[in-house]
């Protein structure tokens, strides 16, 4: 690469290769919403999101723009709510009407403030007196516990952990070689989990009824259990390449069928591999060279030649090399040389 930006295939990030500014803007604005949904509800996962796994948004009439609008409105609402809560808390502290106690110490230690009456303040002041115990004839006070970080600090840290590592994948500063990559969500997922924990803690404190708190705990346990089951099921897809590529057929059929054909071919399952390549060709026409290569290895030269002709438009060098070489191997020297001759021109141009 040197001092030049890396070059990626058009299929790796189709939006980056789109000449329309509107298409690039709408698609790149939509990608953070998709990644956030993968964190919130990872029901659809894939080993690869390239090619046409995520169709481009080419117009304002696309219904997926609503997801983009709701996502950014939600971010603005969270920012407004956080600032409003912070200002309200500072106002209470300055007018002297609010006293915060946490873990037996003054200060907003865990980030959740409570208002106490003067009577409660006196009771708490007595309760805060150091407790002494007799040990070997001496009296020692208990050491106070380390105060917990404030809710505001936890939220800011969580948002930073969620957003900053994800910024390079937004195509904001430079184009990347993928549409969506689940691997870039590993660190942001930690910030997301912290935000969920803070939200659940705040909701638990606000609930007064024991039944409501119990319901919240049961719902939290159910979510953790469901995500655990999802993790176990997803781990099964990663046992071997064949299962992994089969799991991605729903999201990225062209890439999944093509890779599955390669795996089946390496295992000697030629009929299954041929069917996989044909399925890949159904979704994407530039997969014809792989099917042609398999057919020529199965001694189906006439049919292989047809697919090499089809592949010349997308992969001319590979198609002409394979097509010309196998035709010559069959003794069709005239046709073989005819296929190799234009390839020499292509190689010289490259």
TrEMBL record:
<feature type="repeat" description="TPR">
    <location>
        <begin position="254"/>
        <end position="287"/>
    </location>
</feature>
<keyword id="KW-0472">Membrane</keyword>
<comment type="similarity">
    <text>Belongs to the TMTC family.</text>
</comment>
<feature type="transmembrane region" description="Helical">
    <location>
        <begin position="66"/>
        <end position="83"/>
    </location>
</feature>
<feature type="transmembrane region" description="Helical">
    <location>
        <begin position="184"/>
        <end position="203"/>
    </location>
</feature>
<dbReference type="InterPro" id="IPR011990">
    <property type="entry name" value="TPR-like_helical_dom_sf"/>
</dbReference>
<keyword id="KW-0677">Repeat</keyword>
<dbReference type="InterPro" id="IPR052384">
    <property type="entry name" value="TMTC_O-mannosyltransferase"/>
</dbReference>
<protein>
    <recommendedName>
        <fullName>dolichyl-phosphate-mannose--protein mannosyltransferase</fullName>
        <ecNumber>2.4.1.109</ecNumber>
    </recommendedName>
</protein>
<dbReference type="InterPro" id="IPR019734">
    <property type="entry name" value="TPR_rpt"/>
</dbReference>
<dbReference type="GO" id="GO:0004169">
    <property type="term" value="F:dolichyl-phosphate-mannose-protein mannosyltransferase activity"/>
</dbReference>
<feature type="transmembrane region" description="Helical">
    <location>
        <begin position="154"/>
        <end position="178"/>
    </location>
</feature>
<keyword id="KW-1133">Transmembrane helix</keyword>
<keyword id="KW-0808">Transferase</keyword>
<keyword id="KW-0812">Transmembrane</keyword>
<keyword id="KW-0802">TPR repeat</keyword>
<dbReference type="Pfam" id="PF08409">
    <property type="entry name" value="TMTC_DUF1736"/>
</dbReference>
<dbReference type="GO" id="GO:0005789">
    <property type="term" value="C:endoplasmic reticulum membrane"/>
</dbReference>
<keyword id="KW-0256">Endoplasmic reticulum</keyword>
<dbReference type="Pfam" id="PF13181">
    <property type="entry name" value="TPR_8"/>
</dbReference>
<dbReference type="InterPro" id="IPR013618">
    <property type="entry name" value="TMTC_DUF1736"/>
</dbReference>
<dbReference type="Pfam" id="PF00515">
    <property type="entry name" value="TPR_1"/>
</dbReference>
<feature type="transmembrane region" description="Helical">
    <location>
        <begin position="215"/>
        <end position="233"/>
    </location>
</feature>
<comment type="pathway">
    <text>Protein modification; protein glycosylation.</text>
</comment>
<feature type="domain" description="DUF1736">
    <location>
        <begin position="3"/>
        <end position="75"/>
    </location>
</feature>
């Amino acid at each position: 690469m040197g001092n030049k930006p890396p070059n990626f295939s058009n299929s790796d990030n189709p939006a980056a290769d789109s000449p329309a500014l509107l298409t690039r803007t709408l698609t790149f604005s939509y990608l953070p919403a998709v990644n956030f949904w993968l964190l919130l509800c990872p029901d659809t996962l894939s080993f690869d999101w390239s090619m046409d796994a995520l169709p481009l948004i080419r117009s304002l009439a696309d219904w997926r723009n609503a997801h983009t609008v709701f996502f950014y409105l939600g971010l603005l609402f969270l920012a407004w709510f956080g600032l409003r809560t912070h200002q309200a808390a500072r106002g209470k502290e300055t007018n002297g009407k609010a006293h915060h106690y946490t873990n037996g110490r003054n200060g907003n230690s865990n980030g959740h403030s409570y208002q106490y009456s003067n009577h409660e303040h006196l009771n708490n002041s007595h309760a805060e007196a150091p407790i002494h115990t007799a040990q070997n004839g001496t009296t020692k006070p208990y050491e106070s516990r380390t105060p917990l970080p404030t809710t505001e600090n936890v939220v800011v840290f969580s948002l930073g952990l969620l957003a900053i590592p994800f910024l390079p994948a937004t195509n904001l500063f430079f184009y990347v070689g993928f549409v969506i990559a689940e691997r870039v969500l590993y660190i942001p997922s930690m910030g997301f989990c912290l935000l969920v924990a803070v939200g659940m803690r705040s909701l638990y404190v606000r609930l007064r009824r024991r039944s409501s708190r119990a319901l919240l705990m049961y719902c939290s346990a159910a979510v953790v259990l469901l995500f655990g089951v999802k993790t176990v099921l997803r781990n099964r897809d990663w046992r071997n390449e064949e299962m992994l590529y089969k799991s991605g057929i729903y999201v990225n059929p062209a890439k999944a069928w093509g890779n599955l054909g390669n795996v089946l071919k390496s295992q000697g399952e030629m009929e299954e591999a041929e069917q996989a390549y044909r399925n890949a060709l159904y979704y994407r026409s530039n997969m014809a060279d792989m099917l042609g290569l398999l057919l020529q290895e199965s001694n189906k030269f006439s049919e292989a030649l047809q697919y090499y002709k089809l592949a010349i438009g997308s992969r001319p060098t590979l198609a002409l090399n394979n097509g010309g070489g196998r035709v010559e191997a069959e003794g069709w020297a005239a046709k073989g040389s005819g296929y190799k001759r234009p390839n020499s021109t292509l190689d010289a141009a490259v």
